[in-house]
Amino acid sequence: MMKWRSKKNKRDDSHPLEQQRAEKLAELGSQLRSTREQLGFNLEEVAAYTKIQRRLLQAIEEGKLEELPEPIYTQSFIRQYAHALGYNGAEFASAFPTAPSRVNIKPVWRNIPGAQLRPVHLYLVYIVLIFCSVNGLSQMLTRSEVANSNSSRPESNNPPPAKPNSTLSQQQQRVRPVSTSKPNPSQPVQPVRIGLVVKDKSWVRVVADGKTAFEGVLPQGAERTWEAHEQLTVRAGNAGGVLMTVNNQPEPKQMGNPGEVQEVTIAANPQS
Question: Per-residue pLDDT tens for 62-111?
């Protein structure tokens, strides 16, 4: 009777942690869904950006713990989802509790009766070690004799050392300046400059010359400027709340309608 009670109590110890995970998942999922809806994104767009299946994102928002994988993987999904919406993903996901599993490794050889060494076994081990040592020493002496015999051969049999190909090196030095492309000073390129003024909170991504210069949520009233030598690409999740100026234009223009996802690419032009 005492054994049955102890097993039952041990089994019920995991329920508080499971309940804590479910409550925290419902809280974090509700916050992520509210932020996503404010930014004007749907689950398909978030799934395409984070590479996480739509059903898993929906399970996180609805707090359905039973439809999600192990807690460590669920925490990773929450981190990626939060990062895509502009949060600090690691700090946001740390609120979801995970319990690391402990594995106790017990030595098995102690339980084997035949693992105990006896004097006869020690003698056999000594004999094997001596044989291996003598064999290794014999191979080393043989290799040393072969190396000495090769080094004692007349030098006339050895091919002369290869001389550096001075002609080839000179040709390479002549070709290198030709392969280097230099910009034509008669046609200078004017860098492209874009300024953003945020009237309403919006997610924004800016790519300058093929590299991501910024990605995140800009609050209301923020003003930012970026510059590139080739081209600039701006993508806004709430195009109606973002005003854009190109190359210091006097009047900024609205990127699109409120709640609309809009992307604009502007290339640099050569100076006249």
Answer: 999 999 999 999 999 999 999 999 999 999 999 999 875 454 555 544 55
Comparing C-alpha atoms, which of 217, 174, 183 is closest to residue 88? 217
CA distance 20 to 13: 12
How many residues can be counted in the chain?
A: 272
CA 38/CA 35 separation, integer angstroms = 5
Cβ–Cβ under 8 Å, residues 32 and 56? no
Write the DSSP string, the chain.
-HHHHHHHHHHHTHHHHHHHHHHHHHHHHHHHHHHHHHHT--HHHHHHHHT--HHHHHHHHHT-GGGS--HHHHHHHHHHHHHHTTS-HHHHHTTS-----------SGGG-GGGS--HHHHHHHHHHHHHHHHHHHHHHHHHHHHHHHHHTS-GGGSPPPPPP-HHHHHHHHHHHHHH-----TTS-EEPEEEEEEESS-EEEEEEETTEEEEEEEEPTT-EEEEEESSEEEEEESSGGGEEEEESS-SS-EE-SSTT--EEEEEE-EE--
Residue-wise pLDDT tens digits, 29-41 = 999 999 999 999 9
**C-beta atoms surrounding 69 within 10 Å:** 11
The domain ranges of the chain are 15-93, 189-270
Across the chain, mean pLDDT equals 77
pTM of the model: 0.39
Query: Considering the domain 15-93 in this protein, what is its CATH number?
Result: 1.10.260.40
Distance between alpha carbon 140 and the CA centroid of its chain, in Å? 49
Q: Quote the tokens at residue 225.
A: 């400027």
pLDDT band at 136 (very low <50, low <70, confident <90, very high): confident
